[in-house]
Every structure is written in structure tokens, then in C-alpha cells.
Amino acid sequence: METLLWIAQRASAAVLAVCVAVHLATIIYAVQGGLTAAEILGRTRGNHAWFAFYSVFVIAVSVHAPIGLRAIFLEWLRWRGASRDVVLALFAAALAWMGMRAVLAVFR
Amino acid sequence: MKVSVWKGGAEGSFQEFDVPRHPSQTVLDVVTYIQRTLDPTLAYRFACRVGMCGSCAMTVNGVPRWTCRTHVDKVARNDKVEIGPLRNLPIIRDLVTDMREFFDKWARANGQFKSNRTRHDDFEAVRPNSADRVQADAGIECIGCGVCYSACDVVSWNPDYLGPAALNRAWTLVKDERDGARLEHVRAVAGDAGCHSCHTHMSCTERCPKHLSPTASIAGLKREVLKSFIRGEL
Amino acid sequence: MSKGSSYWVAIVHRVSGIALALFLPLHFWALSTALELDAFLAWTRQPAVLVAEWGIVVALAAHFAGGLRVLALEFLPWHERQKTLAAAAAAVTVAVGLALALAL
Asked: Which of A104, B167, C68, C84 keeps 20 to 30 A from B10, CA to CA?
């Protein structure tokens, strides 16, 4: 199980490396000269490519962040066992849900 | 110079001694001087005193080192040196730590060689420059001194973590083509207590007096566990 | 206890990860209020918020660079000069931070 978590962490990291590179470049480009809702939504509304991209981004982050926090909870908070993993699973679900809501909000 | 030395057990304190400074003086020389002339109750370990056995490992100004190979000139700050027992191990007394957990973890990491042949078989021909042998050779000079274990933050943060030395040894066995127990080694190092908890701080590699790189070995173990996982062996 | 460069890169990697994990729910919530996005964006014009935004992007760049370093150490063939990866990670982070500062 722990091996699987490590693999998921590294796999999602590889996916995120691509997503983050694209996202950073986009943000730095888009932010120049100020940013308005119209500009953001003009890019994302009805755009299937962005929708797919950000959906992948959200899922990858929902896998990656909780597994990262798992080690921190153990090592810095001395939190172990089922309660820690349940809380992290809930956090993963929350991130996925909130993330997909956001992606849909700027897509529709 | 002023030398602060840890006295006592886990509950203890640094005691200050005035020690004459000499050229080419090592920290082990300092400890020896203190025990012989100033405080005969001081407990410390050493053996070869020439940088071969690793027994004299202690914490010098916050850094784990072999005291016989640490010149005072190199570490003294404003004519002051602080000497304490190795970190991450229970203190027996003064500068002496209980190394049992260090070696127990070695056993838990399955750090023992298991031959794939018997005395009735012919020798295994091992080419010294085969890729596996080169990688194993990079890690086999470990003498179990405990410096890497003391330097490791994950060992401090996670008491179950097997530690750099035990994992390094497991790696050298996985890369040893004469060892017949590859899967046992891999299984022993997978998981939260094993290689997956290494966060590549590289303190072990930084401090190893034999210039080994447990970080490299542990990275190798991570790949071996991945291979076995994909093959469904775990 | 004096620490090497790899330790600091790892600590920055971890702390930036925590910051990002805390920030993301807020980020997702803000985006899903798309109908009132302009009002929210107006609020983000405040200097304190701009600085925080810049900080978050630098955190992302730092975490990204540190993450590449981890992937390189774990999956690429081992070389002696692994410490240069720590320097490379720092350099990438600074570059991104500067680029964003200029853009903002």
C-alpha cells in the first residue's frame, strides 16, 4: 500500500510537472497589463482543450497533495494510523470536488 | 581552549573543561586528555584511532564526525569546541550511545547476504566492471559507524525509519549477483519505514567519512521496489 | 548542526508544498465564483494581496523545481555532482519569481 502511494506520488508529480510548467507560463503571460474576469473567461468558456487540461491538473493535484501531507503529518506532527489517512482521503476528495467545480465554473 | 563535553545520560548537561591546544591535535586527543587528566569518569569509545574502525564517532559542534580524524584547528570556533554523543541514539553515559537500534534496523532491512549456491556448486564468476557490481562496490565500504544515521533528519522525525546505513547495505546485496534473496531484500525495504521515507536531504552523503552515498543507494532501492511492484512480485 | 544545500532545497520544497496545499482550496473557491469574478479580481488589486499572490507563485516555482530535483535524483543515473541540482532548482525558482514580478 505504501509502495503504491509512493508510486502515485511520483506519477502525479510527473503529470504536474507538465501542468505546472504550462500553468506558470500562462499565468505570467496573462497577468501582464492586469487581469479581468472577461479575459480569463474569454479563454476558458466553451474551450474543451482547457477543460481537459485543467481536469487532469485537478485530479493530479488531488492525488499529489494529500500524499505529500501524509509524510509531513507523520514526521512533523507525529500523527500516524487510520485517523490520519482518513482525514487525508477526505482532503483529497474535497480538493477534487472543489477543483472540478472551479473548472466547470469557468468552462460553462 | 574551552571544551564543552556532554556529561550524564539523556538528562545531563555540557560541562566545560580547559584543554591545552596543540598543533595537529584531534578531537579524540582532546577527549583522551580530559579523561586522563581532568575527569576520569568521562565515558567514551575509541579503538583504532587512525580512521578505520568508526568507533570514535561523536557530535562535534553539532556535526557527527570521527573524532580521531577531526582536527581541532578545523572545527574550533573562537577557541571553543562542543563535544556530545551521536544524535538519534539513546545515551548510555556521556559520549557513549547504545548502538543496538542501529544494528537492529540493519537486521530489519534484511541486511544479510544469502548465497544462491552451496559449497558443492562452482564459484560464481562476478565481473568487477559489470553494471551491478560497480553499483554494489560504491556502497560496500560501510563500517557501520553510525555517522549517517546521526546526520539523518528522517531518523530523528520517524523512529521506525530504517536509516541510511541499513538501506545502503540492503542495496549492495540487491546488486550482488551472488545473493539469492533479492525479493526478500526488496520487500524488507519497501514502505514507510524503508526507502520511501528518504527525502533526499543528503545529510548522510554529506557526512559519510568513507564518502559513500546512501542517497544514491536508497534511490536505487526505490527503483528496485518499483520494478518488483510492476512485476507483481510484492 | 550545519546543513548542506540539499537539506535547504528539501525544506523549501516541503514548506512550499504546505503553503500550496493550504492555498488551493481558496483558489478553487475563488474560481468557482466565476459570476462575481470581477469583484473578486478587484479585491486582488490590493498591494498586500499582490504580494501574497507573488509569494504563492514563487512557492509553486520552488516546489516545481525542487520536485524536478527529486525526480532526477530518484530516476536518473547517479552522478557525483548531484548538489548542482539544488543550485539549479534555486535558479529556476528565482527566474520565475523575477518574471512574475516584472509581469505584475
From this structure: B167
